[in-house]
Amino acid sequence: MPAATGDFVLFYPADGLGAALDRPRTSAMGRLLGRSHATLLTDLETARTTSKLTARNNLAPATVSYHLGVLHCSGLVLRQRDRHVVRYRRSAEGDALLGQQQPAH
User: Fold this and answer.
1) Which residue of 47, 58, 88, 95 shows the fewest CB atoms closer than 10 Å?
2) What is the tens place of the pLDDT at every residue in 10-31?
3) What is the mean pLDDT of the chain?
4) For helices 50-57 and 61-73, angle between their N-to-C axes, nearest 10 degrees
5) Which helix (H) or strand (E) is 41 found in, with range?
6) What HEC string does the chain produce?
7) Interatomic CA distance for residues 91 and 75, integer angstroms
8) Are the beta carbons of 33 and 42 closer than 8 angstroms?
9) pLDDT of the chain along its 105 residues, tens only?
10) How far apart are the first and last CA of the chain?
11) 3-state SS class at 60
12) What is the predicted pLDDT for the residue at 17?
């Protein structure tokens, strides 16, 4: 029996059905900040240079520099210059976001 005029149904298969279950699970922090931001923020429990973070996290120097800039602008990371060396570390806000207490200085 033909459908009445104006009654239309669009039918198509759902792409990626079950794909969410197939993906590797990432931490909540990784989902919130992005994997690279979360990795670097977590690694900054101690002050580190860009080159040290690059080597430790297997990321390109430009990538580390970019992410540190974003974390710094957001107040999650502090930077300290000592002549030609710049070291980054988590701020109190960064520690709070990770659920850690910053030691007294």
Assistant:
1) 58
2) 665 655 555 544 444 446 666 6
3) 79
4) 120
5) helix 35-43
6) CCCCCCCCCCCCCCCCCCHHHHCCCCCHHHHHHCHHHHHHHHHCCCCEEHHHHHHHHCCCHHHHHHHHHHHHHCCCEEEEEECCEEEEEECHHHHHHHCCCCCCC
7) 7
8) no
9) 555 566 766 665 655 555 544 444 446 666 667 788 888 999 999 999 999 999 999 999 999 999 999 999 999 999 999 999 999 999 999 998 888 655 555
10) 80
11) coil
12) 52
Amino acid (1-letter code) at residue 105: H
Q: Which residues contact 47 (CB under 8 A, 6 or more apart)?
A: 80, 87, 88, 89
Instruction: Give the whole-angstrom CA distance, residue 45 versus residue 96.
Output: 12
Q: Is the pTM value of this prediction over 0.70?
A: no
**Alpha carbons within 13 A on the beta-carbon side of 101:** 2
Sheet holding 48-49, edge to edge: 48-49, 85-90, 77-82
User: Which two three-digit tokens encode residue 5?
Assistant: 């005029």
Instruction: Find where tokens 């104006």 sit.
Output: 6
